[in-house]
Amino acid sequence: MIKDITLGQFFPGQSVIHRLDPRMKLILMILFIVGTFLAKAALSFVLCVLFTLFLILISGIRLSVIIKGLKPIVFVILLTAFFNLFLIKGEDAPLLELGFIKIYRDGIAYAVMIAVRIICIIAGTGVLLTYTTSPIALTDGLEQLLAPLKKLKLPVHDFSMMMTMALRFIPTLIEETDRIMNAQKARGADFSSGGLIKRAKALIPVMIPLFVSSFHRAEELAVAMECRCYRGDSGRTRMTKLKTSARDWISLAVMVAFCAGNVLINIFLPLLYVFD
Amino acid sequence: MMQMNALELRNITYTYSKKTPFEKIALNNVTVAFEKGKIHGLIGHTGSGKSTLVQMMNGLLAPDSGEVLLFGKDIWSEPKKISAVRFRVGLVFQYPEYQLFEETVRRDIAFGPTNMGLDRDEIARRVESAAEFVGLSPELLDRSPFELSGGQKRRIALAGVLAMEPEVLILDEPAAGLDPMGRADILGGIRSYQRQRGNTVIIVSHSMEDVAVYCDRLTVMKRGEVFAEGSCAEVFRRERELTEIGLGVPQITRLTHILRERGISIRDDLYTVEDVRVELAKMLPRKGGDSR
Hints:
By secondary structure, chain A is mostly helical. Chain A has helices at 22-38, 42-59, 63-70, 74-87, 105-130, 135-145, 156-186, 196-202, 204-227, 246-268; strands spanning 96-98, 101-103. Chain B has 12 helices and 10 strands.
């Protein structure tokens, strides 16, 4: 059944990363991406890999989950590696020459570097954010982090409320789709054969009831919210206030150290290979 | 004469979300048969597996193991022809009014028959006879289903399945969310349809009151297994066990059971207030004339 798919892929847990303030996690994620892009020397890539493994270890997320999460981008990694391998022209003589195909030392290095970088970023941000933060905490954190933009009259609260609700109703909609599809299948609808146009047409009996019930639901939800005196952002207080603790600041320090480490390695330990 | 089984499920096992942390056994070695030409009640709590079982019956779900026999033939013997099975086993889902999508009532009811590949005259005939059966007046047929009331929408959805003229008709909580009048209307309509056509009907419900009145035979499900099976009287004799699993028996039947426990001999196969009233009236000492 389609409702089996995990959404947002949040895995509840009690690790240090799970308990970090979601605002800090968003900042840490940005720093992590920056840090990974700062890596230039071969050794700093080793540091990236080690640090990513360290994050995975303390998050308590199983390695098999991370690998499963990487599967959808295997194609992208292979494609970029492929182009780097064949299209980059180094200054020194090619290592291999087969007709018009020339492979340079730089090509191999770039291919490996880009692959490592993508894998680290996907796995690292996954562990820092998507796997360890509930969607609700995430939107909460995002709203508060973007709160200064309210001064510019940007409806930050409204956006985050919309996002929260959208996330909340994804499973409901999936279940509903499943139900309607089954009901139409029971009346002989066929979703799995025929060409593209036929299949698209076969979805009409699913889409229309789905839209109709979504509008109904939205209306009911709006009424229910108004019944509980929801009137948007102004004057609204929170039940759970986000608080930063020592843990958050320590993790920030670790992340800054990671970025600094990469820069220092680039400058002082440019062994094997350095990219420009 | 040997009674034929319209539908028979043998040793059905089914597990949801296999090989994930959310794995859940929905059906555990279920064997159950539905005799031809009868109204069967399928009762059970939420999560007892009755909805899963129902989806096995028309091939929406395939069992992990076990067989589903439709008039003695395994429906999965030719997986490519499974949609033909769905025309023979009509399934009306819970709250079926949410499946309507066409511009007119007529076209919505015709969706099933059109998928069957029938010719236009036959489709028109079936649409009209199905609409008549559920009590939709002909002038409603050219209206949009979305501008009609909830009760009417449910009748349209029901007509949409009846129009396929299935040999076995399965209804998942057909009376859910209706007022008492609407319940009696729709369940009574289903019964007169069955009596007229002589086909097989399976009603899924958790209301003992409803199934007692309208069904010939009952199957009680509990946690993915068949808990009890038999005629209403046979099943309701196990009142204590039924109460333990949170289903109970119709209140009026419970009354007769209590009376019997206290030594008053009253029949134990009565399910309506009216029947019990008649029976009790017979027992009252007659004081010259009417016992009312």
